[in-house]
Amino acid sequence: MSWTQTFDRTLPLLGHRNWILVVDKAYPSQSAPGIVTIDTRASLPAVLERVKDALAAAPHVRPVYYLDRELDFIDDTLAPGAEAFRRETARILEGAPTQTLLHDSVFAKLDQASKLFTVVVLKTESTLAYSSVFIELDCAYWSADREKALRTRMAHK
Questions:
Q1: Which string of b and e fits 104-137 if b means at least 16 CB within 10 Å?
Q2: CB under 8 Å to 131, separation ≥6 — which residues?
């Protein structure tokens, strides 16, 4: 079965608080029971574009994309291809909610999430440091504002 078939079967099972990671080749294999790793054998931009399109079509989840803050400081003198990769990633994620975090901060979030929730790791052929994209899933049909309003109503009853 191809990685796209595996991913397409997995996406409907994911929801609020799950994560999808599109990672470089050196991303470590993690031992937490909630982590599922799929070797795509594809380029990171191609996998990211496919995942973004699938998430845009999914009625139940809304993605928040996280990029490593370190990547902003890597240019072609440190890692050839970094600048083109940044441009390509920006093109793919244009219009999507995107944040940058220090690499270790993302790992802290993943450590907590993987204790209770599934984290899908899509390993790519990228050999550019700090190129991984971390995607936190939220509920597409329920917002933080609605949750706050609900909790306020409940507190007054």
A1: eebeeebeebbeeebbbbbbbebebbbbbbbbbb
A2: 24, 44, 68, 71, 85, 89
Q: Report the domain count for the chain.
A: 1
Residues 1 and 103: beta-carbon distance below 8 Å: no
- pTM beyond 0.85: yes
Roughly what angle, to the nearest 10 degrees, separates helices 82-93 and 44-57?
A: 10
pLDDT tens digits for 107-119?
888 888 888 899 9
CATH assignment of the domain containing 140: 3.40.1650.10
Range of the domain at 52: 3-155
